[in-house]
Amino acid sequence: MSEGEIPSLPQEIMEDILSRLPAKYIAQFRCVSNPWRTLLSDPQFINTHLINRHTKENLILISPNQSLYTITNLAVSRKLSFKPELSDTWTEVVGSCNGLVLLVNEEEDKFLVNPTTLKQVKIRDSPLALNKRKSAWMHGFGYDVSSDDYKIVTLSYYDPEDVNQPDTFVDVYSVKRGVWRRLEPSPYSHTFPDLSPGAFVNGSIHWLATTSKSSYTSVIVAFDLVDEKFKEIPAPGCLDETVFVFNKLVTFGGRLCLIDDTQDNVRFDVWIMEEYGVKNSWVKFSVVLNSDWERVKLLCFIGDDEVLLYIDEERLVVYNLKGGTSRDLIVDGVPALFIEGGAYMESLVSTGFGDCIGVQHFGWKWRMMKM
Description:
It is a single chain. By secondary structure, this protein is mainly β. The chain folds into two domains: 47 residues, no CATH class; 270 residues, Neuraminidase. 10% of the residues lie in helices and 43% in strands. The protein is built from five helices and 26 strands. A hairpin with a 2-residue loop joins β16 and β17. The longest helix has 10 residues.
C-alpha cells in the first residue's frame, strides 16, 4: 500500500458497519455511487439493518388540520407534507410495523407510509368491500413472517335482518402481492366495541369482541397472520366479562396492552401482558389523573414505561407508569393541538410493493422541542 492511500475494508465488514447506522444516513449514502445504491437498496441489506438497529420508538402525531409530525427521541420533530387527498378528512393512525405506518381517513382510504424514507402509497380498495356509508369498519396491520409479507386486515359489518347470518366480514390485503382476499366471516361479534384499530403483537392482530349475539361475553381475539384464523387470548381475570369489551387494546413495547377506562373519573388502568398468551402474566398500572385534567386521551406509548397523554385538547403530557410522575411536552413552532398519535421505529422498509396507487415523497421541516 502506497503512502497516503486509504486502506479498504472487506465487503462483509463494510456491510456490517453500514447495517448498524441510523436509517437517515443510509439514505444519504445511497448517493455515493451506483454500487452503494444497489447494496443499500437490496432487500437482504434492509432486513439486516432492521435486525441490527435496536432504536427507541419515535412518535407520529396528527394535528387537527391533518398536518403530520414525527418526533425523534423526544428532542427533534419533523413536519411532513401529505398529498391533498390524505389531508381532506380526519385521519387515524391504525398501527405500525417495522417502520411502516398505516393511516386510514374518514372515507376509509388507506395509506401506507414510511416516515423515515419519506415515502407513502395509497392502497386500492377491496372490490369486495361493503358500502362505506352503510357499514362500519375496523382495521389492523402487521407482518407475516412465514411469507415475508405485510398484511392489512379489515373487519367490516352491517346489521342483517336475519340474526343467523354472519355480520362481520374479513378481508386481507397482501402488500407484497397487491391483492385483496375475502376470508370466512369472523365467528365473533365485533359490533360492540368502538371502531378501534387492531393491536399487532406476536404475529397476530388483536381486537376486543364478544363470543355471540346472545351471551355477549367479552373476549380478546387474535387473528393470526400466518394461518389467517381467529383464536382467543386470555384476558385479565378480574375484569367484568360483560363490559371490558368497551375498553381498548394497543401495543406497548411489543406487548399486548388493555386500557381500562371504565373505573372512575380519577384514574384509568393499563394492563400489560408480560408473557404472551399467559393469563397470570397480566400486570396492572394506574394512571392517576390530575384534578385540573378534564379531558384525557392516551395517544401512544413511549419506551418501556411511559405514555403520551393529550390533555384538554391543548397539552401533551408524558406520564411515567411506574413512578406516577408527569411532565409537559412542548413543541416549538408547531401547534399544541393533536388529535391522533402512534409510535413507529426507524427503518428502510419499502412501501412500494404490490398494486398500490403511486409512490409519493413527503416534504418535511425540522422542529426542535423543549421538555
